[in-house]
Write a structure and sequence with these properties.
73 residues, 4 helices, single chain, mainly alpha, 0% strand
Length: 73
């Protein structure tokens, strides 16, 4: 794909419905995470993690072990 083709696609994306644009952003974030090996949490994901931590369904030690097992901590 050339730069011109990429720019044309991106220009078209601006006219897409918001829901479709958000889906494209999420897919692009996943590709970037795969390429770099770094995943950046979204605000919604951060909020969900904070809410889960407050729920006390798992102890802090269990949560830390979960993330360590996945190479995050």
């Amino acid at each position: 794909m050339t730069k011109e083709q990429l720019n044309a696609v991106l220009a078209g994306v601006r006219s897409w419905p918001q829901e479709d644009q958000e889906e494209l952003v999420e897919i692009a974030r996943e590709i970037e995470a795969r390429r770099t090996g770094v995943y950046a949490l979204t605000d919604d994901e951060r909020q969900a993690i904070a809410k889960a931590r407050q729920s006390r369904l798992a102890s802090d030690d269990e949560v830390e072990a979960f993330w360590k097992a996945r190479g995050v901590v």
